[in-house]
């Protein structure tokens, strides 16, 4: 289901958004009966509180507590808490909100309606929102559609989403927007010089592949590269069972760049978009790559495989080398790459790397504006020797494990020469229900990148 705003032609009930400091003033303007009703309900306008208002034929409207600025700063999408608490039907906001709060409320409402219902009935909330006055409804719906695509892909188990099925979803996205595609599969990866993608995926019966999409013929060029490991056993360096529990989400980078591409193409942004996804399953068999194997990459750099569970950076190395050959104006990679990033920043804050101060500034501002939190970590050049094993140009897994997210980012940077490169180390999973983010797959960084593009690319 793609969430949409309620049709303007239908009648709707008012939802009054009231901050804690404004409750007394609002009550003063109401009838004694209504004041008594609200006070009897115990409504204090604390963040997330909802009280239904009576009318002659049932529910006439509702109040939503907007709390204090301090309370709102502790989370995102507060209005999404109202969606499940309200009766079915159309609602409209009655509120004095900033443009940013208004857009956050509108997007949060749509995202709160998301349900992954492929395998069981999961009824979405029936309370629908009319697009608030002043918001760009088409843009917000396009962003919600892109995020829902990302969530659907991440939530689908590997039994139903291997490299072939990810290819099908990729091609369907391209067809929807009239984009051109090319796919390289199986041993053709070797013939067309993608040796590391082939090495990672060759152990599986599910053939590895390289997916390539192009859209748009004018404007600056943007290339998105997403890690598409549809399941990661760890290879011969086999993960323990607890480590494999969430590995269906190891294609979260691919899912996120596809969701971002959906947003860009739906909004018809004036740029030349390319999306590259190396799609593999990291399995165990007699054909699996081995610890201490040395691979020669597309770029010509040799890589010692010191951990077959550090496979994401291998497939991204070949994909980034291909992307870099096109010399895009901005190159972005997204990947569920390291546990170190989670240790550093937790599951909700997406770390990113760039050497371009202007890109970082635009992304920080955009992430704050659209409530898509990101945090810059350094491409710390003094750590470069940590990824140099001596027997090859690069080590895919430095043995001491220190600065794991940084060394992974430095590894990827070796495959990129274009000056504007941006890398995200994502988690892509919501561990428990949160406003606008049901438990399960979730996109990170895509909305921040989308909002930063005008400043970065001069759109």
Q: Could you explain how this protein is built, in words?
A:
- With 459 residues, the protein is α/β, with parallel strands linked by helices.
- It has 15 helices and 19 strands.
- The chain has helices at 23-28, 32-40, 69-72, 99-112, 137-155, 163-177, 188-191, 195-201, 241-244, 252-266, 312-325, 339-345, 357-369, 404-413, 446-457, and strands spanning 13-19, 50-55, 58-67, 89-94, 127-129, 180-185, 209-215, 221-226, 228-232, 272-282, 293-296, 302-305, 330-335, 350-354, 374-376, 394-395, 421-425, 429-430, 440-441.
- Strands 6, 7, 8, 9, 10, 13, 14, 15 and 17 form a nine-stranded mixed beta sheet that branches. Strands 2-3-1-4-5 form a five-stranded mixed beta sheet, sandwiched between helices. It has a three-stranded mixed beta sheet with strand order 11-12-16, with helices on one face.
- Helix 4 (99-112) packs across helix 5, helix 5 packs antiparallel against helix 10 and helix 10 packs across helix 15.
- The chain is elongated, with a radius of gyration of 24 Å.
């Amino acid at each position: 289901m793609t969430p949409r705003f309620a049709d303007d032609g239908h009648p709707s009930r008012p939802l009054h958004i009231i901050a804690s400091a404004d409750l007394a003033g609002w009550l003063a303007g109401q009838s004694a009966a209504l004041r008594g009703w609200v006070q009897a309900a115990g409504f204090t306008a604390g963040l997330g509180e909802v009280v239904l208002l009576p009318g002659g034929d049932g529910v006439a409207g509702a109040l939503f507590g907007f709390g204090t600025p301090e309370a709102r700063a502790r989370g995102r999408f507060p209005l999404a808490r109202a969606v499940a608490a309200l009766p079915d039907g159309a609602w409209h906001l009655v509120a004095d909100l900033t443009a940013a709060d208004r857009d956050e409320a509108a997007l949060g409402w749509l995202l709160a309606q998301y349900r992954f219902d492929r395998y069981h009935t999961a009824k979405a909330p029936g309370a629908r929102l009319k697009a608030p006055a002043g918001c760009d409804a088409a843009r917000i719906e396009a962003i919600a559609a892109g995020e829902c695509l990302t969530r659907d892909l991440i939530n689908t188990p590997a039994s139903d989403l291997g490299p072939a099925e990810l290819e099908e979803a990729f091609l369907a996205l391209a067809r929807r927007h009239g984009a051109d595609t090319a796919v390289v599969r199986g041993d053709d990866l070797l013939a067309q010089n993608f040796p590391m993608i082939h090495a990672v995926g060759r152990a599986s019966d599910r053939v590895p592949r390289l997916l390539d999409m192009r859209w748009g013929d004018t404007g600056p060029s943007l290339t998105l590269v997403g890690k598409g490991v549809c399941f990661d056993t760890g290879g011969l360096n086999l993960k323990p069972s607890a480590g494999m529990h969430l590995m269906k989400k190891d294609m979260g980078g691919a899912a996120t760049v596809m969701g971002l591409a959906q947003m860009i193409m739906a909004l018809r942004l004036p740029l030349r978009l390319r999306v590259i996804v190396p799609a593999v399953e990291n399995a165990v068999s007699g054909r699996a790559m081995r610890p201490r194997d040395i691979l020669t990459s597309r770029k010509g750099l040799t890589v010692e495989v010191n951990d077959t569970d550090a496979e994401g950076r291998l497939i991204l190395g070949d994909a980034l080398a291909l992307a870099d050959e096109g010399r895009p104006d901005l190159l972005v990679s997204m990947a569920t790459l390291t546990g170190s990033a989670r240790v550093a920043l937790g599951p909700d804050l997406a770390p990113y790397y760039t050497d371009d101060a202007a890109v970082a500034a635009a992304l920080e501002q955009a992430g704050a504006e659209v409530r898509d939190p990101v945090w810059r970590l350094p491409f710390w050049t003094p750590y470069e020797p940590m990824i140099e094993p001596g027997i090859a140009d690069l080590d895919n897994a430095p043995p001491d494990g220190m600065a794991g997210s940084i060394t992974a980012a430095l590894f990827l940077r070796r495959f990129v020469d274009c000056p504007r490169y941006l890398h995200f180390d994502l988690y892509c999973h919501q561990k428990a229900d949160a406003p606008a983010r049901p438990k399960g797959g979730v996109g990170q960084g895509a909305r921040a990148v989308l909002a930063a593009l005008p400043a970065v690319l001069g759109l």
